[in-house]
């Protein structure tokens, strides 16, 4: 079995006559936390959809856990949390998660486990439609954690959350990686970059860099990762 969880080679996605993802190539090792960072609209969500296998691509290949993206064997091996929660508003949190657990054929005991992991124990019997924005995001993340997915693709999972909960979730991500899970976590908040083992930095559909946080600091001679990202942009524009 290869140690690579994701291999993207020359990926191109076209929308409205223009490339929104342009010739992107990278590899992600199993059991790691990789951050996908860049400003809103740079192509992060489209790239994630391509990895999950729900995006029509114009060129290139995406291989996930040794299979072509979107293959049937991957359906229960990937947990995907979208930016826009798809959890039903007219159910209690516990009821909604029981439904998704049955669809995913996950153990019934997973429901209480994931509710606790995302910090929603005090709202387990609350209606999803009555949750705050941050609580709604956590419930959506809980769905992705059901079962034992080998790969978690999380699209801005910490958006709208307070700093304490954001820290708790990043600690959870680190624990999951130590258990052998692979996580790809997108964000447009650069202060989260330092919590990742590897970084993919995107801008305008292209991949500016793939490196570790320390490697990026050394490469740009910047201690602050946001300044490092800005330095990369200036280098590309000057080239």
Tell me what the structure shows.
This protein is α/β, with parallel strands linked by helices. The chain has a domain at 1-71 and 177-239: Rossmann fold. It has seven helices and ten strands. The chain has helices at 44-52, 93-104, 110-117, 133-145, 163-178, 213-220, 225-238; strands spanning 4-15, 18-29, 33-37, 59-64, 67-68, 78-81, 151-155, 182-187, 198-203, 206-211. A six-stranded mixed beta sheet has the order 6-7-8-3-9-10, with helices on both faces. The protein has a four-stranded antiparallel beta sheet with strand order 2-1-4-5, covered by helices on one side. A hairpin with a 2-residue loop joins strand 9 and strand 10 (206-211). Helix 2 crosses helix 3 (110-117) and helix 6 packs across helix 7. It is globular, with a radius of gyration of 18 Å. The protein starts with a strand and ends with a helix. The mean pLDDT is 91.
Q: TL;DR of this structure?
A:
The protein has 239 residues and is α/β, with parallel strands linked by helices. The chain contains seven helices and ten strands.
Give short descriptive properties of this protein:
alpha/beta; Rossmann fold; 10 strands; 239 residues
Helix vs. strand class: alpha/beta
**CATH architectural grouping of the domain at 1-71 and 177-239:** 3-Layer(aba) Sandwich
The major beta sheet can be summarized as: 6 strands, mixed
The helix fraction, in percent, is 25-40%
- Which sequence of SSEs, written as H and E, runs from N to C? EEEHEEEHHHEHEEEHH
Q: How many whole angstroms does the radius of gyration measure?
A: 18 Å
**Can you count the beta strands?**
10
And the CATH topology of the domain at 1-71 and 177-239? Answer: Rossmann fold
Q: In angstroms, what separates the terminal alpha carbons?
A: 40 Å
Low-pLDDT stretches: none
- Give the number of helices: 7
CATH class of the domain at 1-71 and 177-239: Alpha Beta
Q: How much of the sequence is in beta strands?
A: 25-35%
């Amino acid at each position: 079995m290869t140690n690579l969880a994701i291999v993207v080679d020359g990926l191109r996605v076209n929308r409205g006559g223009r490339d929104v993802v342009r010739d992107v190539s990278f590899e992600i090792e199993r059991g790691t936390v990789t951050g996908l960072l860049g400003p809103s609209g740079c192509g992060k969500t489209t790239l994630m959809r391509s990895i999950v296998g729900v995006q029509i691509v114009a060129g290139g290949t995406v291989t996930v856990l040794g299979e072509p993206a979107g293959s049937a064997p991957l359906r229960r091996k990937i947990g995907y949390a979208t930016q826009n929660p798809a959890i039903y508003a007219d159910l209690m949190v516990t009821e909604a998660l029981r439904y998704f657990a049955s669809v995913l054929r996950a153990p019934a005991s997973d429901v209480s486990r994931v509710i606790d992991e995302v910090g929603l124990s005090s709202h387990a019997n609350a209606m999803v439609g009555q949750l705050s924005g941050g609580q709604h995001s956590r419930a959506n993340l809980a769905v992705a954690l059901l079962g034992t997915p080998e790969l978690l693709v999380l699209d801005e999972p910490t958006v709208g959350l307070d700093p304490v909960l954001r820290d708790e979730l990043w600690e959870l991500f680190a624990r999951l990686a130590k258990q052998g899970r692979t996580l790809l976590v997108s964000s447009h908040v650069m202060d989260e970059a330092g919590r990742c083992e590897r970084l993919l930095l995107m801008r305008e559909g292209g991949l500016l860099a793939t490196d570790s946080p320390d490697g990026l600091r050394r490469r740009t001679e910047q201690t602050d990762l946001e300044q490092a990202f800005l330095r990369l942009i200036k280098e590309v524009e000057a080239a």
